[in-house]
Amino acid sequence: MRLRIPTLILLLRVVGASPFITDVSTQKHKTGHPGVERGSPEFWYHLGVSICLVLAGGVFAGYIPPIEGIAQ
Asked: What distance lies between CA 38 and its chain's CA centroid?
């Protein structure tokens, strides 16, 4: 199995971004904001909103192909 340079670069970027390699709970964001503590009510609120937005995006993505078929 011979890996090419772009594949290796992508692999290194993915491994470097892994939360298991660096402890993201102690790092600050680029803006200096420390972020939300895991397990806090604000964390669960943000997680819930994110899940709802992702699911809504999936629902709307499922509606678009049938609408395009009707328009033709």
From this structure: 16
| Spatial CA neighbour of 24 closest among 43, 38, 9 | 38
Per the CB < 8 A criterion, the answer to whether 35 and 47 are in contact is: no
Tokens of 27: 């790092």
> Confidence band (pLDDT; 50, 70, 90) for 35?
confident
Put simply, whether the predicted model's pTM sits higher than 0.70 gets the answer: no
What DSSP string runs through 3-72?
Answer: --HHHHHHHHHHHHT-TTTS-TTSPPPTTS---PPTTSHHHHHHHHHHHHHHHHHHHHHHHHHHHHHHH-
Is 52's pLDDT higher than 80?
yes
